[in-house]
Design a protein that fits this description.
about 20% helix; eleven-stranded antiparallel β-sheet; alpha+beta; globular
Length: about 160
């Protein structure tokens, strides 16, 4: 019995210094959120949504107010008033906002969940797309906070 007590005390001290790492379950979800976009010196507001691997960006400010770009990975469909125009994917610039968001989420899906880490108020995802490195921040309620393309100088702040 005398030998058991010191062993129990030793085990208690051994485990007292250990901490349990909180588990988290990041999740890339479809969404629809208002956003502010800064691309170099140019900025505008829009609504960005993603559903079933299709991204839609609808401008809510500037002269392009009301114009929508729908991108599905193969083509972009531009809609404005009564006009509609489709462009195949290889003819679309990587800085197109719908293509940029689509490419980022595709890169995240390919590397998920290895590219995710927990932050104080949500999750951080890092990846690389045709625009270069990017960081996506997501809140604990799974809404998106921001998407930043470092090399391209494009920053999207979600509301």
């Amino acid at each position: 019995m005398k030998k058991v007590v010191p062993i129990i005390i030793f085990v208690c001290f051994l485990f007292a210094g250990c901490s349990v790492k909180a588990s988290y379950t990041p999740e890339i979800r479809d969404f629809s959120q208002n956003a502010s976009v800064e691309a170099g010196e140019f900025s505008y507001t829009c609504k960005i949504s993603m559903a079933e691997r299709v991204v839609t960006v609808t401008a809510t400010s500037t002269n392009a107010k009301g114009m929508s770009i729908v991108y599905n990975g193969k083509s972009a469909n531009f809609k404005y008033l009564e006009m509609e125009y489709e462009i195949v994917s290889d003819k679309i610039d990587d800085t197109n906002p719908a293509k940029a968001v689509y490419d980022a989420f595709e890169a995240l899906q390919a590397g998920f969940p290895d590219n995710a880490s927990k932050t104080a108020d949500g999750f951080r995802y890092d990846g690389k797309s045709p625009l270069g490195s990017f960081t996506l921040l997501q809140r604990d309620d799974y809404t998106y906070k921001s998407l930043q393309f470092k090399e391209a100088n494009i920053n999207i702040e979600f509301e």
